[in-house]
């Protein structure tokens, strides 16, 4: 059947499928079916999308693009066939260049509104997984203030430690792994990443390490266990801190490792031989880089090393992260290129010694996480709900594509607190492979 809401005599009706095919600039590569009986896209496509409710149509019409699609999908109003919800990579690969909507002419727009129903132009309440828009966050707290950072970090990381165990695996490491060879497992790759960081920092027994944004304590525990250092890890996530502290106790590392639930800016100790920042820079805001790198420099002793590991853009131009990522995954998150990272570190008085791009490794890491989510889908859904599980499948598969397409990268930047006389303690050549 066709929708005739708002239809006047003599006017041709328009179906949802027709409207979609008309508005999508580059066509639809998947099979689309709608609750009004209409279809669009190739009938023999392996991947399909099914719009099952009027609420879903309202989501699509009131937020054209990735946000409306995400709202309809997360809420269950837009269903996916031919791919698993825990890893919709194949569907997203097909859709990645086909979700650009053209602007219809005035007469065409009037016809569509009448055909589809003006009532669908009233936005429904968003799914509960969606965070406040940026303007609302700005009203309720200064961006990257201590309180607002704590709130948005909690939104993403305080989901459920059990859920993260299912997705991340035994390493409980939510950052890019390092695959030493093609056949390496996710766990082997995460251990290799921590070991590379330790070697880049030149860790030796008796040194003091500060790990900011320590997550579930993987770097702290690896460095203490394998390199004999004493380490302090800080995280803004209460759930992470609790899990990490228990892991430290369980592994018998309490005498050398401390996990602190705190903002990195609350660390008052200094004189550390090394500082690692693995996955924190994305959250602090580009405008805060001078203060961030200056703060970390001040935590180091003369000759101490900083390893900054973070997602970067393929260029140094500022742009928004996208509505879906900002509302559902990383509220207030910001990315820039490695050139900006290096510049800010240098301007803060650090001497950059080495930079490395691990982009392809992050694509593999995300493939490992989505495979875990698929394997443990039922338990994950029972733990956090199907909507949240869908968010994670969508975000991880989309991020994998972005890394594969070189839209985003992952850089490790190694720097030293070099003394005024030029003494850095750094060897003539890098002593890590």
Describe this structure in words.
There is one protein chain. With 433 residues, this protein is of the alpha/beta class. The protein has 18 helices and eleven strands. It has helices at residues 16-23, 54-62, 66-75, 89-95, 106-116, 134-140, 146-157, 161-168, 186-200, 218-227, 238-250, 281-284, 289-299, 323-329, 338-347, 359-375, 377-384, 386-404, and strands at residues 31-34, 39-40, 48-51, 78-81, 208-212, 230-235, 257-261, 272-278, 300-313, 351-357, 408-416. It has a seven-stranded mixed β-sheet with strand order 7-6-5-8-9-11-10. A four-stranded mixed β-sheet has the order 2-1-3-4. Helix 8 (161-168) packs antiparallel against helix 17. It starts with 15 loop residues before the first helix and ends in a 17-residue tail after the last strand. Residues 1-10 have low confidence and may be disordered.
Helix percent reads: 40-55%
- Please state the structural category: alpha/beta
Taken in chain order, the helices and strands follow as: HEEEHHEHHHHHHEHEHEEHHEHHEHHHE
The total beta strand count reads 11
How are the strands of the biggest sheet laid out side by side? 7-6-5-8-9-11-10
Low-confidence stretches: 1-10
Largest sheet: 7 strands, mixed
The best one-word shape is: elongated
In angstroms, what is the radius of gyration? 24 Å
Question: In what range is the share of β-strand residues?
Answer: 15-25%
The overall average pLDDT, rounded, is 90
- Distance N to C terminus: 65 Å
Number of helices: 18
